[in-house]
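note to self — DONT lose this again. spent like an hour looking for the file last time. sequence + predicted structure for the chain T wanted, 181 res
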Amino acid sequence: MDTLTFVAAPLFAGTAIATIGVLGADSDKFRWPALSMLMLTLAALALATSIQVALHGRRFLYTVDEARSWGASPDGNAPGAASAGLTVEAQAADFELWVKLSGRATWAYQIGLALLKLGLACILAPPANATPSDSVIRWIASGAVVCALCVHIILISKRVRERARRLSSDLRLIMAHVRTP
C-alpha cells in the first residue's frame, strides 16, 4: 500500500502535471490538447487524493509493539492503557478504519491511473497534419494504451465482483447465525 500511494502516485501525478505544461506550450502538435489536459488534470487530482487519503489513514495502522513503545499496553490491563485509549479494541477499530481508508486510497489511485491512460491515449492520437506513416504508428500506440486501459478496467471490475461475492457470502453466514436460536 505504501509503495502504491507514497511512491507510484506522486510520480504519476508529477508526470501528469508536467505533461499538462507541455500540452499548453505546444498544443498545435496534438490532435486533442484540451481533452488531454482535462484527462491529465483529473488524473493528477485523483492521484493527489490517493496520497492524501493514504496519509490520513496511515496513522491508524500500528502494531502491538508500537503501541507498547508509546507507554501503554494494548491489552487494556496495564495502568494507563485505558487513559491512552490503546486497548485491543481500540487497535482493532483503528485497523478497521485503516482498511477502509486504504481501500479508498486504492480506488483513487486506480481512477487516477485510468484517467492518466485516457490522457495518454489522447496525446498519442496523431494531429491532423501528421504524415500517413506517423499517423499509423501513433494510432497503433494510442490503441495499445486503450487496450491497457481495458485490461485495467477488467481487472478492477473482477476485484469488485469478488468483493461483492465475499460480502454476500459473509452476509449469508451472519444471517444464518442470527436465525439460529
